[in-house]
Amino acid sequence: MSEFSRMIDPRLLTAAPLHLVANAEECTALAKRFALVSVDRLEAMVSLEADGAVVKADGRLKAVIVQSCAVSGEELPVAIDAPIALRFVRDDGQHRPNEEIELEANDLDEIAYSGGQFDLGEEVAQTLALAIDPYLTGPKADEARKKAGIADESASGPFAALAALKKDS
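Predicted structure:
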């Protein structure tokens, strides 16, 4: 079960957008799942439009998280505002997980579901995960690099060893 589960039955959709808000327990569980210091707020406004067994979901996710700097480990507050564009399709049994497909830039993420419901909350959580910058650095990153003996990226990159060999010859 997802930390932020919101099961949706496509047969019961209305024209009104859905407002999904994570409670404190869900935020704590999501922070643990995504290795964040905290998720202080997570909400999404999503409009759902059904076309038979296919449901198109459009909206926005807004979140406030605290994550660690990738270099210094300092805590960095981050506001996230990301679009949501998904298509839920009934699993017809022909899904081939290892099949290679071509996607265009404006193609929607397609999520197969079985039974009579799909989990919109889980997809909002995954949208949050994709919006998190895993290499975020803060103002103390340069200081941490210097303490570790890494002056700058060029001094530690793949050509740094070659440059050192050139200086020795």
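Summary: The chain has a mean pLDDT of 86.
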